[in-house]
Amino acid sequence: MEAPGFITLLYIMNTLPKELGIASLPRENWVMAGLFTIHYIYRALLAPLLLNPSMSPMQPTVWAGALCFQLINATSIGGWLAGYGPTGRNYWAGRWGYIEVGLMIFGVFFLANIFHDDELREIRRAAARNQKRAAEARGEKAGDKSVDKVYMMPESGLFRAVLFPHYFCEWIEWAGFWMVGGLQCTPARSFLLNEISTMTPRALQGKRWYVNKFGAEKVGSRKAVVPGLL
Questions:
Q1: Cα dihedral 30→31→37→42 (10° resolution)
Q2: pTM of the model
Q3: If pLDDT is split at 50, 70 and 90, which confidence band does 107 have?
Q4: CA–CA separation, 194 and 198 (whole Å)
Q5: Tens-place pLDDT, residues 152-203
Q6: pLDDT of 227
Q7: Bridge-partner residues for 162, per DSSP?
Q8: 71: alpha, beta or left? (left if phi > 0; alpha if psi -120 to 50)
Q9: How far is it, in rounded angstroms, from Cα 111 to Cα 68?
Q10: Residues 6+ apart with CB under 8 A from 155
Q11: Who contacts 9 (Cβ-Cβ below 8 Å, separation ≥6)?
């Protein structure tokens, strides 16, 4: 459901400048398009097809809503980068300090996002290994039972401080993306605010679930999504 996003953005980047009579776009525009594409190649292709040991079912309405968001978001960002935003060097001149910091923030927190995602994947991988060993000990073939319902509390990285650090890392990642584009990059700002506004309620609901599942003592002082605050 997320792959159409970066495909749409790349299509706009390669077609809109010609329609607007723009000979070439600044390299910074393409750098931002590359950041967006790299994130969603991981999120839409690598993670579900190669990395995730299993996938939970998704309601059609959730799938459709996510697809619509991806298309709208990619169209907004792609339109800004491909012709309705900066199309010359003047906008980017003198901003390389901010751009470099934004790139570093994006890169570090993209990797942190992957790290915390993998901590959750390892729970399912470990459960699958345990199931296989138990089946072999009984002289049976490993069953097809899903590992989606195996729950544990990760203890590595920011999981020590919050229950949904992958949400937090993704927010900071996209804040770095906005920093690369600058304050005038309204689509990047809107994207970040939309992510925060939609993911925060899920994190708060998720914390209540953790408390009900494992108990308040086990959850301890962990926040839902923002270390020390929320």
A1: 160
A2: 0.90
A3: very high
A4: 6
A5: 888 899 999 999 999 999 999 999 999 999 999 999 999 999 999 999 999 9
A6: 95
A7: 223
A8: alpha
A9: 27
A10: none
A11: 33, 36, 37, 74, 75, 77, 78, 81
pLDDT tens track for 120-158: 988 888 777 777 777 777 777 655 555 446 778 888 999
d(CA 85, CA 87): 6
Nearest to 190 by CA among 103, 80, 96, 98: 80
- For the stretch 123-151, what's the b/e string if a residue is b when 16 or more beta carbons lie within 10 angstroms of its beta carbon? bbeebbeebeeeeeeeeeeeeeebbeeee
176/99 Cα distance (integer angstroms): 9
Rounded distance between C-alpha atoms, residue 177 and residue 29, angstroms: 11
| Secondary structure (DSSP) of the chain | --HHHHHHHHHHHHHHHHHTT-S---HHHHHHHHHHHHHHHIIIIIIIIII-S------HHHHHHHHHHHHHHHHHHHHIIIIIS--SHHHHTT-HHHHHHHHHHHHHHHHHHHHHHHHHHHHHHHHHHHHHHHHHHTT-------STT------SGGGGTBS-HHHHHHHHHHHHHHHHH-TT-HHHHHHHHHHHHHHHHHHHHHHHHHHHHH-HHHHTT-BSSSTTT-
Structure tokens at 138: 């009984």
Q: How many beta carbons lie within 10 A of that of residue 34, not counting itself?
A: 14
